[in-house]
Write a structure and sequence with these properties.
The longest helix is centred in the first third of the chain and has 15 residues. Helix 3 runs parallel beside helix 4 and helix 9 packs across helix 11. By secondary structure, this protein is of the alpha/beta class. The chain has 15 helices and 11 strands. Helices cover 40% and strands 14% of the residues. It folds into 2 domains: 260 residues, 3-Layer(aba) Sandwich (Rossmann fold), CATH 3.40.50; 97 residues, Rossmann fold (3-Layer(aba) Sandwich), CATH 3.40.50.1100.
Length: 384
């Protein structure tokens, strides 16, 4: 078993995916029965078993990556945005707003366009990868760069949503987490059970919370981390049976969970997790406690090294923030913190093409030749 898609995918006669998470998981989503799905065919992303990377650290278990970069706008945000925009449209909302380090802006703009709604996105000046900014512009969003960081933008979004007819589609919107929980459903369907460990990069902390909600529902267990029901689930007991230990990894320059308090000026090359004051702060701590997992931090150098390793040895190209999950797991495997023989899944939150400048500037590999066959042959012979 080396590769899996998602659960209950619907295909036409040609084998093309035609439904998204709202249609496939409607039975477990708190949406109005008559809500028309706003979809771009998100979800059903590959679950890939890694071979060379675990061998390099002597790991004898199973190490998988759930490649969310295969979603329509290239990140996991599409799952939650499909559900949030579906709910907003069903209410008759006409506009959405978000603060973003990049991926949320792209997803919000795309799904708003799909629904015929207006999208307003706030991004920190000079701190968003150009690939993500280009997406928001292409999808027709009204883009505003602010002098400040993501946390400043989030404060503005909250304030304006109280004054104007705007639906906030950041992860404080509980429907976002409901959409993102579907990752857990797909993984359990593919593996036949939950993994022993599930690792994620942590920025705003909504995604690790959403994964835990999904795993808890599948295990028939209530969780106080659920922002939709507040833990008042039908099965309101605390138990880790059938659920993984959740591992959350942050960049060292933007690691509020490791500092125990917000970081005023977060800095990291992994811009998608450059967040100093996570909106899902309390739910993420609940996830850590209920799952028996842990948080960790990594240097930018460790994150970029894992990004390059994953691409060069496994053929999977993710954006820097995504690689934090793999970097953290490899380090904890070497340290013996993750038990031998375990099944481990790492969520890769976004595609590498979201932020190509980072990898090109870090290690240029383009050789300039004089155009002769001799020069090309010499280069190839040196590399064989």
């Amino acid at each position: 078993m080396t590769e899996h898609g998602g659960a209950d995918s619907r295909c036409d006669a040609g084998g093309l995916r035609t439904s998204g998470v709202v249609e496939r998981f409607r039975a477990v989503l708190p949406l109005p029965a008559a809500a028309a799905a706003v979809s771009l065919g998100e979800g059903a992303t590959p679950l890939l078993r890694l071979q060379r990377l675990p061998a390099a650290v002597g790991f004898d278990g199973e190490l998988y990556v759930k490649f969310e970069g295969a979603n329509p706008t290239g990140s996991f945000k599409d799952r939650g945005m499909a559900v949030a925009v579906t709910e907003a449209q069903a209410r008759g909302a006409g506009a959405v707003i978000c603060a973003s380090t990049g991926n949320t802006s792209a997803a919000a703009a795309a799904y708003a366009a799909r629904a015929g709604m207006r999208a307003f996105v706030l991004i920190p000046e000079g701190k968003v990868a150009l690939g993500k900014l280009a997406q928001a512009v292409a999808y027709g969003a009204v883009v505003a760069q602010i002098r400040g960081n993501f946390d400043d933008g989030m404060r503005l979004v909250r304030e304006l949503a109280e004054r104007l007819p705007l639906t906030v589609v950041n992860s404080i919107n509980p429907y976002r987490l409901q959409g993102q929980k579907t990752v857990a459903y797909e993984i359990v369907s593919a593996l036949g059970r939950a993994p022993d460990y599930h690792a994620l990069p942590v920025g705003n902390a909504g995604n690790i919370t959403a994964h835990w909600i999904g795993y808890s529902e599948l295990a028939g267990v209530g969780t106080a981390a659920c922002l939709h029901c507040g833990g008042n689930c039908r099965f309101a007991r605390q138990c880790v049976d059938g659920r993984p230990q959740m591992l959350g990894y942050q960049a060292a320059g933007s690691a509020p969970f490791m500092r125990g308090a917000p970081v005023a000026q977060p800095e990291t090359v992994a811009t998608a997790i450059r967040i100093g004051d996570p909106q899902s702060w309390q739910p993420a701590w609940i996830v850590q406690r209920e799952s028996g997992g842990w948080f960790g931090e990594l240097s930018d150098q460790e994150i970029l090294a894992a990004q390059r390793q994953l691409a060069a040895t496994e053929g999977v190209f993710c954006e820097p923030a995504s690689a934090a999950s793999v970097a953290g797991v490899l380090r904890d495997l070497r340290a013996g913190r993750i038990v031998r023989g375990a099944t481990v899944v790492c969520t890769l939150t976004g595609h590498g093409l979201k932020d190509p400048d980072v990898i090109l500037s870090a290690e240029p590999r383009i050789h300039v030749l004089d155009g002769s066959a001799t020069a090309l042959q010499r280069l190839i012979e040196q590399r064989l």
